[in-house]
Specification:
Blueprint: E1 12-16, H1 21-36, E2 44-49, H2 64-72, E3 75-80, H3 93-96, E4 106-109, E5 113-115, E6 131-132, H4 149-159, E7 185-191, H5 194-211, H6 225-236, E8 254-256, H7 260-266, H8 269-279, H9 282-288, H10 292-299, H11 302-308, H12 319-328
Parallel strand pairs: 1-2, 1-4, 2-3
Antiparallel strand pairs: 4-7, 5-8, 6-7
């Protein structure tokens, strides 16, 4: 008897949009979704924090041309109020925005993501959440005389009454090595209920921020707070590491490129093809060229210079090394 594949569901996509860099990334995200998934049955929501609460100034998109183009591309701007994080921790937008969504299955994407393939190739099981493993060992830090990584992580599972910490460990990895522990990049994650997931995400993040376990008092939690809380939330809802059915995420279906110089340095030819194809559309070009990194990287071919500096088959193991080369060559833009 063969294992049943998860039933694919209609789902919504949500990203956070603000003035500045994120609004231009949102245009590329929306345009790439339309180009690669013309029959996408869900809705693309762009959650927009409003002035007030934890934002003393307005972070909203004020350019009417950007707003009009996002609407034309099928995106719906969804205003929400950030009460707990806001300008002091913009990463928290992705946590607080979930409460504003319709309570339907969702996929969160960071705005600096391109859609490069068909979502039908991804075997979502929204009842079992997961998140991106395209990350580095940024947290926790191993202190010389401090607790080991296992003690640090277990203290959080214990603080929230979560059983099964041992079952979250990757036994193929060495003791006290960061990849042994369930740690994600928050560039994508999904679940069947944004309201339930968001409420738990907010609860855990606030408690880690304000009342973390004693063994973590010397650990720096910013800017990684969202990524510290995320595996705990996923475990609480019965999820875990992404399996092969989700390989299209951070694979042939989505690309979390982070910055355009990094995209040109390390991503596949397909990613570059989608980026340059959607950016070449005249109606988008008129808007995108107002953003200096896009103008230089795409329209003035600096991206091609970046691409020539690296062998995609033999990239440096750490992103920091790629950034060093880009900065040395005067090609680091964001």
């Amino acid at each position: 008897m063969t294992d049943q594949k998860p039933v694919r569901q209609v789902f919504n996509i949500v990203a956070v949009v603000q003035s500045g860099r994120l609004q231009y990334e949102a245009l590329l995200l929306a345009a790439s979704l339309r180009a690669t998934n013309p029959n996408f049955a869900g809705k693309l929501y762009l959650a927009e924090p409003q002035q007030g609460g934890a934002w003393s100034r307005s972070p909203s998109v004020t350019d009417p041309a950007v707003r009009a183009m996002l609407a034309e591309l099928g995106a719906e701007i969804l205003p929400f109020e950030a009460v707990h994080f806001g300008q002091n921790y913009p990463h928290g937008n992705k946590i607080e925005a979930l409460a504003a969504l319709p309570d339907e299955p969702f996929l969160f994407l960071d705005t600096d993501t391109l859609i490069t393939g068909d979502f039908d190739a991804v075997g979502f099981d929204f009842a079992k959440p997961s998140a991106s493993r395209r990350r580095e060992g940024t947290w926790p830090a191993q202190e010389l005389y401090g607790p080991d990584l296992a003690t640090s992580w277990k203290s959080l599972y214990d603080a929230f009454g979560l059983d099964g910490f041992e079952q979250t460990l990757d036994g193929s990895q060495p003791q006290n090595y960061w990849q042994r522990f369930m740690y994600f990049n928050a560039g994508w994650f999904f679940h069947t209920s944004p309201k339930a997931f968001g409420q738990r995400f907010l609860e855990y993040a606030l408690r880690i921020r304000d009342n973390r376990p004693e063994v973590l008092e010397c650990q720096e939690i910013f800017p990684w707070l969202d990524q510290i809380a995320l595996p705990l939330v996923i475990h609480a809802f019965g999820g875990g590491r992404p399996g092969p059915e989700l390989a299209g995420l951070d694979g042939t279906v989505t690309c979390h490129y982070r910055t355009l110089p990094l995209l040109y340095a390390r991503e596949s030819d397909r990613v570059v093809e989608v980026l340059e194809d959607v950016a070449s559309k005249q109606e988008l070009r008129r808007i995108l060229r107002d953003y200096e990194p896009i103008k230089l990287m795409i329209y003035q071919n600096r991206g091609r210079k970046v691409r020539a500096l690296f062998d995609r088959e033999d990239l440096p193991r750490r992103e920091q090394a790629i950034r060093f080369v880009l900065k040395r060559e005067g090609l680091w833009l964001r």
